[in-house]
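Hi all, a correction to my earlier message: I attached the wrong file for Haloacid Dehalogenase Superfamily Class (Subfamily) IIA. Here's the right sequence:
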Amino acid sequence: MSVDAGGRLIDGYTLVVFDLDGVIYLIDRPIPGAVEAVARLHAEGRGVAYATNNASRRSSEVADLLTRMGVPARPEEVLTSAAASAELLRDRLPAGAPVLVVGAEALRAELRAVGLTPVSRADEKPAAVVQGYGPQVGWAELAEASLAVRAGAIWIATNTDRTLPSGRGPLPGNGALVAVLRTALERDPDVVVGKPEAALFETAARRSDGGRALIVGDRLDTDIEGARRAGLDSLLVLTGVSRVPELLAAEPGRRPTYVAQDLAGLFDPAAVVRVPGPADAGGWSVTARDGGLELAGSGRALDALAALCAAAWSAPAVPQIRPAGPDAARVLESFGLPAGG
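and the right structure:
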């Protein structure tokens, strides 16, 4: 059964892999409906996993945080870019090798757990530099990392998220800090471990026991692109970073399979839509007019979104979108697309 046939989205999958920030919680508070959604999945006996680019917490810490929020989680259900980076370096370096860490204590702990030695200065001759997000990362750490990479150390980035969500709006993420070193060194990291690379999702999908895995995320440039690279279906929820204007402008490698306002879309056929959809379904129509697109009709906002995706994704550039009538104007405004484009 599929959402296209009016059934529940979740009935087509045996495992749901969640991003965390922007999907399950925002910083340290659960997003409305998330606790209930995960509890319902557990009650139905469906597999659940969590894949996060956040390298500032260990898997056990993330599991404890989720449990305190009312989402019972085990460390083995949590896949972090910090743990994956440590495992990658363990496989490349001799036991006990020094690794210069730019990031939080959690990243150092993951390195120790796999038998490597975290260091903080370039003159300790690190074999590698591993760079992850940490709220206290500053110029001094970046300077030591720059010196170490110039001296020949492997440069590993846990992820390249440009921003991370907060209650006050998007804040600089690890990608912004990686950009500092990229500018100074005039080169890219040797390896980026986290999303949008496929490794985290491929590892999670192997837990589906031969069934199908669905990736649920809030970012087109990490969660959705990573799912597509891994060959997996994805659900974009509009509770975090990526919004409708970005969705309409998304390049093919960043287009989700489904879109929902929140996790209710897993269970309620009326709360989710497959994208792109027909340009004239659900009471809406989208037509090319005067060099732009015109949305006309009335009905479910998500059906309008599916129609807009179909039209915008087939255009050579993102066109202006205009409403034809008050219902269309209200929908466009709710999407952050005011009348006129």
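Sorry for the mix-up. The chain has eleven helices and 19 strands.
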